[in-house]
Amino acid sequence: MTTIVLGRGAAASVVAVLAVLALGPGPVSGPAPAAAAELLPDLDQETPAQLDVRASGAPGRRTYRLGFGSGVRNVGTGPLVIEGRRADGSGMVARQRIDDDAGGPPRVVGGVGALRYVRSADHQHWHLLGFDRYELRPVGGGAPVRDRKSGFCLGDRYRVTTRRVPGAVPEAVYRSRCGLRRPGLRRVVEGISVGYGDFYAAHLEYQDLPLDGLAAGRYVLVHRVNADRALRESDYTNNAASLLLALRWRDGVPRVTVLASCPDRARCDAPARAAATRSAVVPAARPPGRGRAALCSLSPSGADGRPS
Hints:
Helices cover 5% and strands 37% of the residues. The protein is mainly β and 308 residues long. The protein has one domain. Strands 1, 5, 6, 7, 8 and 12 form a six-stranded antiparallel β-sheet that branches. Strands 2, 3, 4, 11, 13 and 14 form a six-stranded antiparallel β-sheet that branches. Strand 9 (132-138) and strand 10 (145-146) form a beta hairpin. The longest helix has 16 residues, at 8-23. The N and C termini lie far apart (96 Å).
């Protein structure tokens, strides 16, 4: 056997190397990479607009409905993207796609709702059910009148101009008609880009509530987006907006007056806290198809009804 004798300097070097190997690698210099942040939408419910009382039915048997326009705008950091899929002839399951600031593949969140092909006199396309909900609540208590809205075909229908939205896209992205007249689709994508909103005009696809049987008095008209919070957002505090209304009847015909508006609040029955607004009288009831709905001076800039 051969014996190797190391000098004092060589032996010290070997001991140092063994010590480093025993301790393992040292710390990596520099800060750790930051985790990617989600770019979430922020759905801001616009104040109800385009109030209009409409009559239907034969003389002597009239029924009356309060129509209203409703808008939802995206003021968040990322788009609202909804993808619907199905494997058979049933409705589509809705999933939300969420981007991040690192440019990675979008995260997909399931179970956010359902899409259904809706047939009506105005539209025939795929709607995200329960996206926006409406109710007329009597001040002081009592059962509210609730909507039967069939859902929204989401899209970039108007640009947000009344406030600055950082990260707003320069042009509309979601312009599709949500599978118009295509009930056999297996997949559909809908959404609202940052800096854009979606709007439905008064009386379009159940954009109204019945007035028949309601007593004269004060009521709060509430519009609320994402009521069940199934959609991921960065902020839920601006998901509701409301109007304080006065309802009167004269010779069996309703007349509605707007007393106050309450952006970002579902309760507008405390006048001292309500946003100041001039009193606006909604025109007396009229049969359908005669003239445009009266603007309540609260309509989103650039918003309008949509063609079918």
